[in-house]
Design a protein that fits this description.
It is a single chain. By secondary structure, the chain is mainly alpha-helical. The chain is built from 27 helices and three strands. A hairpin with a 2-residue loop joins strand 1 (about 25) and strand 2 (about 30-35). Helix 2 (about 35-60) packs antiparallel against helix 12 (about 225-235).
Length: about 500
């Protein structure tokens, strides 16, 4: 009943809004409906099939089949994850056109690729990022992506497009294919092939985020429960609508950071806590939102283990701070980049940019959260419905409360109310983990056969909802701009 209601109700609202052409947003930010929904619906079916395959593997894990069957189930889950990465690449109508447009558009992740193409010396670029980039205005940069984000995504784009790149004078097979199939000039084929390498990297990082999510889930959950958690945290509308892209890709750093932190707390391991701090620092170079996720996890841990605050500080907080400091020191000694100074400058620039956005702030306070709730998938609502009646204030409940508190502070006090499905994707792993920890179903208790059916059903509902949700929106406006020929204007 919970899954059915969580599946049908958001779709009824979304389809009604699409039929009535109700804008999903206002002013500077809004999500367009797809002009080719019928074709998208057909292209969503392979994802549903992958969901069925993953559900079968989860059933095998939950039913406590023989070891050989469970190993096979793990292999099938890994193959399904790779299949999901392939699906998000090929699913859009005319996929190559949409992928190269998204990775070359300054209003989306193409800003990082364009920025990377002008870098001569990467160490020099990073050392002077504050002075050379953050002092500029939006018109000079063609958008706000570079100005409102740390340069980590630009570094990834630089590495993907430059490492082992083909010689411009001797184009590789892919560039030759682009020239022949799309009648591109040598310059355009080099630009597009480099951009597609970046998009492929982002897709691969998103797939790896699912594997890291499974490891995070195994800290507290059964093998089947960890697989369900990983699917919920990575294959959801907030991630799939923007994959391949920087925001879904950074789920890898979020999951690795949370895994190291909670594993260190559970094992009282200072080295793992140091890894968590290092992962946090690396994640911050991609997005400042990692700090809020880390704060929520820390607050939940301290709240739950308040009787042993000294142990948590000595074996957790201090080693984590040392791990982060080690990364800062090593990077500074290696290339002279002062990461804390850059992060502080980006935070100040982000604050200064907010008044420049053309939007009605009062309207966004009313519509921002409802739009985000329509992008949440059935698994979250089902686990919330299962855990709410239990009224147990365990670590999972505290993690949900602390994560929701951080999101509420960002929404109500900081005033970040727009584009939440994309910007809040980093909060889905701690939310899903907290809900999963509250549910005995995902911890491996209860009748195994009945639990297996329930978990498999949860997977099917999660994947099918996400796939069909993807059919409704042209979230990055690629279809709209390619059809209307507006492109980058």
């Amino acid at each position: 009943m919970l899954l059915g209601a969580a599946f049908i109700l958001p779709f009824a609202i979304l389809l009604a809004c699409a039929a009535l052409e109700v804008p999903m947003g206002q002013g500077y930010f809004w999500f367009r409906y797809s002009p080719v929904r019928a074709e998208r619906t057909l292209r969503a079916l392979p994802a549903v099939a992958l969901g069925g395959i993953a559900a079968g593997a989860v059933w095998t894990l939950a039913a406590r089949r023989p070891r050989r069957d469970r190993l096979a189930a793990g292999t099938v889950l890994a193959a399904a994850a790779v299949g999901a990465g392939a699906w998000v690449w090929w699913a859009p109508p005319v996929p190559m056109n949409q992928q190269w447009f998204n990775i070359t558009s300054l209003s989306t992740d193409g800003a990082f690729y364009h920025e990377s193409s002008g870098i001569g010396s990467l160490p020099l670029y990073l050392r002077r990022f504050d002075q050379d980039r953050l002092t500029r205005v939006t018109e000079q940069m063609g958008g706000t992506r570079i100005l409102s984000n740390p340069p980590g995504a630009t570094v990834l784009a630089y590495l993907a497009s430059r490492v082992n790149a083909p010689d411009p004078l001797e184009p590789g097979a892919f560039q030759r294919y682009l020239r022949a199939a799309h009648e591109l000039s040598p310059e355009d084929s080099a630009l597009i092939s480099g951009g597609l390498r970046v998009a492929i990297l982002f897709a691969a990082l998103w797939v790896l985020a699912g594997a890291a999510g499974y490891g995070l889930g195994r800290v507290f959950l059964s093998p089947a429960g960890a697989a369900v958690f990983a699917i919920m945290a990575t294959f959801n509308p907030c991630a799939v609508h923007f994959a391949p892209g920087k925001d879904p890709a950074q789920l890898l750093s979020v999951n690795l950071m949370l895994w190291a932190w909670f594993a260190s707390w559970k094992r009282r391991s200072a080295p793992l806590a140091a890894v968590a701090g290092a992962a946090l620092l690396v994640g911050l170079t991609l997005s400042l939102s990692h700090a809020w996720v880390a704060l929520a996890a820390l607050a939940a841990t301290l709240w739950h283990d308040r009787a042993r605050l000294g142990t948590v500080a000595l074996r957790g907080v201090l080693p984590a701070a040392a791990g982060a400091a080690a990364v800062v020191l090593l990077v500074y000694l290696a290339i002279g980049w002062n990461i804390p100074a850059t992060l502080l400058a980006v935070a100040r620039k982000w604050t200064a940019l907010q008044p420049t956005f053309q939007m009605n702030r009062a309207v966004w306070y009313l519509i921002g959260l409802p739009i985000f709730l329509l992008f949440l998938s059935p698994g979250f609502y089902a686990l919330l419905g299962l855990s709410a009646p239990r009224r147990r204030l365990n670590l999972g409940t505290r993690l949900v409360i602390c994560t929701a508190g951080a999101m509420a502070f960002i929404y109500l006090v900081i005033g970040l109310t727009y584009e939440l499905p994309r910007l809040w994707v980093v909060f889905l792993p701690p939310l899903a983990l907290g809900l999963a920890m509250d549910a005995p179903l995902l911890r491996g208790r209860g009748p195994h056969r009945r639990a297996a059916v329930a978990l498999a059903t949860l997977v099917v509902a999660q994947v099918a909802f996400t796939a069909f949700h993807w059919t409704i929106f042209d979230a990055r406006e690629a279809e709209y701009r390619l059809i209307s020929k507006r492109l980058y204007g």
